[in-house]
Amino acid sequence: MAMKIRLARGGSKKRPHYAIVATDSRMPRDGRFIEKLGTYNPLLAKDSEERVKMNAERVTYWLGQGAKPTDRVARLLEAAGLTEKTTRNNPNKAEPGKKAKERAQEKADKAAAAAEAAAAPAPVEEPVEAPAEDAPTEVAAEDPPAEAPAEDAPAEVAAEDAPAEAPAEDVPAAEETTK
User: Fold this and answer.
1) CB under 8 Å to 19, separation ≥6 — which residues?
2) What is the mean pLDDT of the chain?
3) CB 30 within 8 A of CB 10
4) What CATH code is carried by the domain that includes residue 42?
5) Please, which residues bridge with residue 23 across strands?
6) What digits encode the pLDDT tens for the residues 14-46?
7) Tell me, what's the pLDDT at 109?
8) Mapping DSSP to helix (H, G, I), strand (E, B) and coil, where does residue 17 land?
9) Nearest-CA neighbor of 8 among 18, 58, 22, 27?
């Protein structure tokens, strides 16, 4: 029969209270046990004397009989000085999970894309300037046809149109500033 020293949960919902028990490893967590060795109340402060109470004499007896403590009980026993402190090595403890690694990779990709965009702003600005240069050419193309009919007209009509053409040239300039 494989013996364990483990915690049996008691208490109400969201208010845990544990009994430290010696039991057969095949029994349910909160089921039948051989002997109650102490109590553990995780809701109390860590420096409180009432947090962990155990019968040290009976715990050493069951350890001598070959009972194996669970991880949590082993830590409680180490804190009470009943067993030697063991060194633990969990190299994966600080390593992020799969999803966190994926999020970090996506963030790094976005940062790299932003850095590339910041490093090469000239190609982005040139297309923006090109339409601005095209606009004056279009305005220049519109101006000569407006003057051509004035030249075809008789001299008196051209003299009357001349003052009208001067404000007409100012209007396309105003359109350029709005674009």
Assistant:
1) 7, 8, 10, 33, 36, 38, 39, 40
2) 75
3) yes
4) 3.30.1320.10
5) 4
6) 999 899 999 888 888 887 888 899 999 989 898
7) 92
8) strand
9) 18
Q: Residue 39: give the domain boundaries.
A: 3-80
Q: Distance between terminal CA atoms of the chain?
A: 90
Please, where are the H alpha helices in the chain?
56-64, 71-80, 98-119, 121-152, 155-178
Residue 171's pLDDT is 53
For the question of whether the overall pTM of this predicted structure is more than 0.70, the answer is no
Amino acid occupying residue 96: P
Based on the structure, what is the number of domains in the chain? 2
Q: Long-range contacts: 100-106, Cβ < 8 Å, 24+?
A: none
Half-sphere exposure of 135 (CA within 13 A, CB side): 13
Please check the confidence at residue 113 and state whether its pLDDT lies above 70: yes
